[in-house]
Amino acid sequence: MFENLSERLSGVFDRLTKQGALSEDDVKTALREVRVALLEADVSLPVARDFVKKVQEQATGQAVTKSVTPGQQVVKIVHDALVDTLTGEEDPGELKIDNPPAPILMVGLQGGGKTTTTAKLAKRLKEKNGKRVLMASLDVYRPAAQDQLAVLGTQIGVDTLPIVKGQSPVDIAKRAKQQATMGGYDVYMLDTAGRLSIDEELMAEVEAVRDVANPRETLLVVDGLTGQDAVHTAENFEERIGISGVVLTRMDGDGRGGAALSMRAVTGKPIRFVGLGEKMDAVEEFHPERIAGRILG
Ligand code: GDP
């Protein structure tokens, strides 16, 4: 569907006269292509513009290595700059779960993959970190939501909080904390209800749950295929609730992953995990190089 950026740049450089160093004009021409490729990969315009400026400063005047073409060299510079932009100081896969029971709050819009991701991360905590996890669904609106989490719990061998009809999300959060403390769990995960779009009611509810649970991690789960919408959602949640990171789901789809670059630049929050399918193992910690490769195509 897309012309790959490496091919595109080779084409541009084939038309240019060969020189010993990357001239400002060469770099400018190449970076026009990079900017178009970034926009096609759904990176937002201001982020693409800033990024290209940064690369331009790095690339101008660099000697062209004999073993690679100028096109390949620019691709490498762009790749390294993407990785640099996407890499934070923290270890994305390391969840803060000391002082048991550690609460993890899962937030996001409906259909983003929140419940699935809650179970995937619970399984990972159990198998990789050897933790005892309790999951609780706070979705009192969709009758099937609490059952959905219970079914996943049975499937992965992780306990879920028994369902009590008629309780509010805050009541359920309190009960989860109590059960996690009494039951000697290391972690309890609160799967909040989503809405089709961000509204005051949703935010007020999540805020109330946050205040009761005092979470160590608040992970926002967003559909990576929704591109800029995912970034706007993250901006809203960060502003109102405060998040400790983002999980980008559906990265097994054919989206180009540009949302990842904008996410970091716009919200300042790290992407912690990536969802790669519907199965319970289809989650991995965020690898900047993989997304960079994908954005470049
Ligand atoms: P929630 O409303 O945010 O809790 O969303 P769900 O967890 O119910 O997920 C909605 C749908 O997306 C389900 O059919 C999931 O199996 C699917 N889903 C979740 N994460 C991923 C992912 O990373 N890749 C793919 N392909 N599907 C996913």
UniProtKB/TrEMBL annotation:
Keywords: Cytoplasm, GTP-binding, Hydrolase, Nucleotide-binding, Ribonucleoprotein, RNA-binding, Signal recognition particle
Chief place of localization: membrane
GO molecular function annotations of the record: 7S RNA binding; GTP binding; GTPase activity
Domain SRP54-type proteins GTP-binding: 270-283
Catalytic activities: GTP + H2O = GDP + phosphate + H(+)
GO cellular component terms attached to this protein's record: plasma membrane; signal recognition particle
Domain of life: Bacteria
GO biological process entries: SRP-dependent cotranslational protein targeting to membrane
Binding site for GTP: 108-115, 191-195, 249-252
First-level EC class: hydrolase
Membrane topology reported for the UniProt record: Peripheral membrane protein
Entry text on domains: Composed of three domains: the N-terminal N domain, which is responsible for interactions with the ribosome, the central G domain, which binds GTP, and the C-terminal M domain, which binds the RNA and the signal sequence of the RNC.
Oligomer status and interactors: Part of the signal recognition particle protein translocation system, which is composed of SRP and FtsY. SRP is a ribonucleoprotein composed of Ffh and a 4.5S RNA molecule.
Family: Belongs to the GTP-binding SRP family. SRP54 subfamily.
Protein name: Signal recognition particle protein
Species: Actibacterium atlanticum
Organism lineage string: Bacteria, Pseudomonadati, Pseudomonadota, Alphaproteobacteria, Rhodobacterales
Gene symbol of the encoding locus: ffh
Residues represented out of the complete protein: 1 to 297 of 502
